[in-house]
Amino acid sequence: MSDIKYTEEFKRGLSKALQESVSTGQVVGYDRLTVTPQGKFIPIDTGLQGVILSDSGKSTNKKNVQRDSDAMRDANAEGVFSLNRKFAPIFQDNAIVMNQGGRGSGKTKAGAVAILLETYKTKKRNILALRFNQGTIKDSIFSEVEALISKFDLEDDFDIQRDTIKNKLTESQILFKGIKAGERDVKDKLKGITKLSYVLIEEAADLNVGLDETIELIQGTMRDLGFFYRLHLIYNPRSKAHSIYKRFLSRLENSNFNGEADEAYIISTSYKDNKALGAGYLKTIEKAKELRHTTYLHTYLGQWQDIGAGQIIKNFEVGAYQEWDSTAIGVDFGFRDETACVLVSANHKTSTLYIKLLLNASELTAEDIKYQMSNYIDLKLIGDSARPEIIEDFKRDGFQMLPSKKGAGSVKDGLDLIQDWRIVIDSERAEEVVECFNGYFWDERRADKPNHNNSHIPDALRYAFMFLCDNSGAGNYFLGTNDYGNGNHRFNRAKNPNYKAGETLADSHIRRKMKSWSNDSRDFDGYGF
Prior knowledge:
The protein is built from 14 helices and 22 strands. The chain has helices spanning 8-24, 107-118, 141-151, 183-190, 211-222, 243-249, 279-291, 293-300, 366-372, 388-396, 410-418, 430-438, 456-470, 505-517, and strands at 28-30, 33-35, 41-42, 44-45, 50-51, 81-82, 96-101, 126-132, 158-160, 164-167, 173-179, 196-202, 230-235, 259-260, 265-269, 316-319, 326-332, 339-347, 352-361, 380-383, 400-403, 422-426. A 9-stranded mixed β-sheet has the order 9-10-11-8-12-13-7-15-14, with helices on both faces. Strands 16-22-19-18-17-20-21 form a 7-stranded mixed β-sheet. A hairpin with a 2-residue loop joins β1 (28-30) and β2 (33-35). The longest helix is centred in the first third of the chain and has 17 residues, at 8-24. Mean pLDDT is 79; it is low at 71-76, 472-499 and 508-529.
């Protein structure tokens, strides 16, 4: 705080802010400081003058937002943490705050400031910070709160445990919990929590299925506890097919605006709003702007993606899963990224794939996956061949797991062939699959290579699909085992009496499709469809 000017006017204002904080039991913002009812002056500049938030839901001086010049804002000021003025509505009378933005926008740090200050209000309360996958929470919002406590020498005020940070002055606490699913898992995490005043969901775009039910559940838990409650969602925009966009933003002329919408306050930020970014990071962003402009707009400016722009898998619809003779489960392993398991059944006669999402979560060990897939031990599981040790582990426990077949050109060939099939997504978890497909694009730098984003479900689908093509029920749709994945895809003459010399997988697919179309009797049995 060495560069804060302690003029007489400043001291009088600070004294008035302290009196207001003590009398109301609320946290008050004053110039470049935050004042707590316990008489602490924390050098956090929220950009507000007056009571930040009251439990009655009536903030004083709600519109009195400081201009940057008023607060002498300097991101590099010694000992002072200054938030961009766009984040001021986080501390005001908004029951639902949607904080959307691109990478490096500072939105997670702002959320950490908000829940830290919430613990200093005099009425004891609980704050719940949710993030999909508990294993990553300490790498993000937890570590941000912990860093703020250390930065401002507040260690004596807090008891920090593995998944809880408790303010010893007020006995209020922040509970950090991971969720792996939607509304049902959130409901489980809310059990036993009383005096809940604030729920923050980080990476909220992962909450696609059951969004409406989850919001209603959280609001119902907080509504009648005597606090002015707040639901704070932090997320990076995705496809316009997402539930968040459909519910909160679809009727707006500009989905990246700042201001009050029908039922939430929208805060849209980008890296341009974060004055504390280093030169190296800014250089990386500028390079992306030049070489990968679409990625720059989406990833760094936080713009919502139009449905279908560069999209790989479009030939899908939502319906009911059907079981056919040709069935397998594709498994794409992840840990920090998601592990995806997709049940796929192929009707070769009509070139229709019926798919059902069984698992889509990160931070899963092999034992976790085996437990989730225990009901499918009699089916063929096609796992990512890049993880032979996991595949062997599954086999030793009785699973019929086989490695996927990879090689130069196999990804592009598989995706090209999938696009010739009709895909029916089972309705039970269709939103997750649709959201993934709508965000699965070709890489801008290589036309034959998909972007890694949203690739886990499509990869699992492709593993199972290519296995089913290699082992079709008709017995005539075979790929030569030794040649699969080397870019040639020659057929095995011994297994396929209809083999034609030099024919590739795609050539054979088209030839047999055309032959079946010209056959009035629709006798597909000889062609593997």
